Amino acid sequence: MNFNEKLIELRKSKGLSQDELGNALGVSRQTISKWELAQSYPDFQRLVLLSDYFGLSLDALVKDIDVQDVRSKNLSEKQLSSIYEDISSAKSTIKTVINIFCVIGVVGLTLAILAGIFWG
């Protein structure tokens, strides 16, 4: 069962309208409608509120959800590309910092050895 189908089933089992569920979660009726139509998905905070509201664990609430489908609905290609670019940039920066520390370590070790030879 997809998340949107699960949400519809849960909402109807409590006899709630989209407006009533939205009010309980602090979102609009339109937001609930988009979730139920699989046009968008709730953020983590709303998932926690949903799980609490329906008395389910997060695991039970999101079980069998296709993560790739959620990613494609919530993030545009431009947003995904930006995230991947940020990650690549961070990896590159970390590698550079590690290389600098390695060079500093080698220079320090070399100086310590030379100091030991000359003054030892």
From TrEMBL:
Domain of life per record: Bacteria
Domain HTH cro/C1-type: 7-61
GO molecular function, one term: DNA binding
InterPro entries per UniProt: Cro/C1-type_HTH (IPR001387), Lambda_DNA-bd_dom_sf (IPR010982)
PROSITE patterns: HTH_CROC1
Pfam families (UniProt xref): HTH_3 (PF01381)
Transmembrane regions: 97-119
Entry keyword set: DNA-binding, Membrane, Transmembrane, Transmembrane helix
Stated name of the protein: DNA-binding helix-turn-helix protein
Gene source species: Blautia hansenii DSM 20583
